[in-house]
Amino acid sequence: MRKQSASMWSTVIVFSAIMASQTLAFTNPSEVTALQDLYWNLNLPSELRGWRTEGGDPCDESWAGVSCYESSIIYLKLRGLNLTGFLGHQLSSLCNLKQMDISFNKIWGPIPDELPPNATHMNLSHNFLSGPVGNVFTGLSNLREMDLSFNNFTGDLPSSFGSLKNLTGLYLQNNKFTGSVTYLSGLPLLDLNIGNNYFSGIIPDHFSTIPNLWMGGNNFHSGDSPPWHFPLETVPIEQNISRPPTTESSAIESYPIVETFITKKKSMGPGGIAFIVGGGTLVASCIVIYMSIRINQYRARRLQRSGLNNNTTHSLPVTAVRDSSPAEVEESPQMLTFRSPILGPRRMPPIYNSRTQKTSKRKSVTRKHGFPMRAKLFTIADLQSATNSFSETNLLGEGSLGSVYKAEFPDGQVMAVKNINMVTLTFKEEEQFLDVVWTVSRLKHPNIVPLIGYCAEHGQHLLIYNYIRSVPLDEALHYSGYKSLSWGLRLQIAIGVAQALDYLHSTVSPPLAHSNLKSANILLDEELMPHVCDCGLAILRPLTSNRVKIKASEIAIGDTGYVAPEHGQPGVDSRKSDIYAFGVLLLELLTGRKPFDNSRQREEQCLVKWASSRLHDSESLEQMVDPGIKRTFSFRILSRFADVVSLCIQPVKEFRPPMSEVVESLKCLIEKVNMEQSSGADGPRPGPGPGPGPEMDEKSFLSTNTRFLLSPDLTNSSVDEG
Q1: How many domains does the chain have?
Q2: pLDDT-derived band at 499, boundaries 50, 70, 90
Q3: If DSSP codes are grouped into helix, strand and coil, which group holds residue 121?
């Protein structure tokens, strides 16, 4: 009897649960209609499994990409499904939707006039959305993050942006927005990316308080009183304009995903609960024990490698403690990369007064890598004496990492000292700096500026290079005081830089990316041989002080043209970005134009965008050649050169060739140039080939000492000034 009674009650409970779940699963009719309208306007894609234009229940039937809570649709994720069409006109009916992600599709048209009114996270990036954005954001008071990047939006920002009072993350990069950004000045933003648009006017002072700010590639005013006067007491997390954030980490992706579709649960008795609790406790205990063993083993190995035993005491300076996690150095067989720290509030800097501390730090680097530090250790006193206390008269220039000074030592040596103005570093970040020094000091290539020494004491971080009489390539190409470089010399420069990059990518172990290749970082010596500088230093930029970041931000506006489309995305091989930047450099050599020039008409400002469509059109290709070298080489050579450029600047990184293949292509091209010179092939004769050196009757040169006709004094150092 008891069994029959229990069976009957079980049946009743199960039946009641099913009925209740079906009642809860019935989706709000207006929300069903909204999804049906969206499905129709997206051209009924097969990727949206379960969707219909009539009938159906998104929550009960688990439509693809739809998450529900009871009878409400709260999450819509249609990311990367190759969807086409447009967004329809009924999204505002999704009254309970919290998150919407339709990124990485081919959706076109404008943003609908009405959006989900209670959305907190919205990602529309990487589509073909276009047109001016109207006042569509009015009433979206709950919106916290929004990503509209990588679309074709035009026109000014609407005033409704000012109503987004809870917006902390906004990504508008890579569109065609124009006008002012003042509507964004009152928002509580923590992340703002407006890079690669056509914004103009004054940058609001409020932007100085935004921790993560990217805005390169615009037309902002930079007059006598530019809006870059950020308060020095404000330490942004990373104000690096040249490194936009990826949408992979923005908007929807950083928000916890709700996986609740329908509530269909059976009641569980005490025995089941006890089983789950007990089993969970057992599993957790096993995990804790296992992790403890692994941690102890790891610590033991660390102690053995460092030459310490368990009886050795080793204390860290308490001043090295700070709020955020320290930087980490990651090594892999493919690439040496550094994870940038979150630069939060700093405490007093640790002061290293004794040579013992510096020596032990050097030894730690030696032990870690198994090879001695090749860079010489300088004291701050020696450098102060050699630079006349870093006086203005010794200042050579300011670059994206800090100031560069000329240093004259008592023994007659002349060096260039790069003073990297950093924030207060933790002990681990100090070790990271030394790791960079160790890596860079081992670079030995005729086309790479060698690192001679370093200094890291009293909170100062300096790098010492050989001082050479040189001129940056960007000045040689774009400054009116210099005569045009011949075609032969431009090929010589191209092959030299290519070989340097190939050395970094293929010979150095682990491979190293430059990550900041540009004509300003290529120095031409008195023999006009190229030398690539700042190799391996880009990863130090997040550690620089606020004042340096502001200067770097101004410099980065002009460097926008070198930035690869995938730049900033996690997990990307930076060597591919180097190859893209090298392709831009080849375009710069061919055309004589700057990679990004806001003095030109809008459609001609970005060199890659302007030149890409012209590389495979004979007439346009000839017209884009720098007038200073036009008709000095055959069209056959020009066409081959254009092929190399086209491969390097492919928007899809997988299609770009490795630098080793680029080097071989340029070598073959130089051989063809020399053959044409010797045989008198058809077409205009090329200029002097990239052999041992330029001929004296070239219009680019005056003598073997100065080379440049209009610049008798070359005073630039072996490190960049911008």
Answers
A1: 3
A2: very high
A3: strand
